[in-house]
Amino acid sequence: MPVEGKVADVSAAIITALADRLDAPVLPDLRTGGGFTLLVQFRGAHEAVLQRSTLVAALTTVTAALGEQATDRMITKGYKISVTAAGEIELLLTDGFEIAFSFATHTGVSAGIWDGRDHVVTFIVDGGPRVASVVVDERLDDGGETAVQGWAFHPRGLGEIGGSSVRLAPEFGGTLSRFVVYDRALLTTEAIAAARALSPQ
To answer: pLDDT higher for 193 or 73?
Structure first.
């Protein structure tokens, strides 16, 4: 059965043809218990992706909204998915004020995600328990040998981050072949099923 909650699904053909930003739905507010899931399918070589490391950039500069007061203050809010110096895949979330949250895979490199073949990484962010987790291909990242667990709590005050203006593979040394957004936090089993559906049969 298809996984429910999909609000954006961008294929390789669209990514290649896209000349500018993609209009996407605003992500749910985490402070109200909402959640979301971001899935990327990609391939590349380790050396190349470290040189050009951004898979998805959904950071937007807007005027800060401070109650009813007019303000000239500008903030940058949204999210970014990129490759860390260690070769792991990292999700950055920011509300543009004082709260930012970064969360990366722990087992991506050891799982061989830079072997030149397609791989899927799925970030799940749940505003209810304030937990972020990640599925690498069809396995829940459990922290591997570098962390006690593969999940993390995100900050309590992190809420509406936007994310409606998305640039796909703006600076990526590999190939981004799929980008999918769900407007809810998928169950781990659903994330595994979504990744499996993209795998060659």
So the answer is: 193
- Does any domain span residue 1? no
pTM comes to: 0.92
- 132-156 b/e with 16+ CB inside 10 Å = b? bbbbbbeebbeeeeeeeebbbebee
Whole-angstrom distance, CA of residue 142 vs CA of residue 150? 4
* Total domains present in the chain: 1
**What are phi and psi for residue 182, nearest 5 degrees?**
-115, 140
Domain assignment of residue 100, yes or no: yes
Answer left, alpha or beta for residue 164, where phi above 0 means left and psi between -120 and 50 means alpha: alpha
The label of the residue with tokens 């409606």 reads 164
What CATH number should be reported for the domain holding residue 29?
2.60.120.200
- Residue 16: in which H helix or E strand, if any? helix 12-17
